[in-house]
Amino acid sequence: MSFIQLAFYFFAAVTVFAAAMVITIRNPVKAALFLVLAFVSAACVWLTLEAEFLAIVLVLVYVGAVMVLFLFVVMMLDINLSRLREGFGEYLPIGGLVAVLMVLEMAIVLSTDDFSEQRLPRPEAHTEGYSNTKELGRLLYTFYVYPFEIAALILLVAIIAAIALTLRKRPETKYQNPAKQVSVRRDDRVRLVKMGAERKRDES
Fold first, then answer.
1. CATH code for residues 1-82
2. For residue 8, with 0-12 CB atoms within 10 Å meaning exposed, 13-18 middle and 19 or more buried, which class applies?
């Protein structure tokens, strides 16, 4: 077994362990930290598969932005998510059954002749100036340009739908009108009342 294969199995085992800890541990902060470990381990797996660009994007986007924001919200707002995990034991048998079925399905698929070492194409040896990012961009904007554009359109529709659902007016919700706030005048908000001086009463 080569060093690359040994590193692949090691990081894959760490990823599975961290993912299992995310759904089993009750502390939300520790669960988020185990999720960070799962993302970093998955990025290391991609490094062993020569997908350097995807690995660094996973670390920068999810670990560096999404998980930091999630940890900030959980730790600053002191959200108690342990109540959401109280019924975890009730769904554990069916969840374990589904996990076992998925493992069996993957084992059946990988054991067929189509996934044998003789049928699988061997990766080409890369030259010294090979760029993983350049090859990914070339395939994404040439061969997969139409699926890429369709995915971008679907995301745009999802963003517009989320904004439309958020901005719908409800009678019980208060809204601010920026135009009225800008055009407000002092006389509309402040009223000066002149009062005469009061004499101090004698204490008797």
1. 1.20.120.1200
2. middle
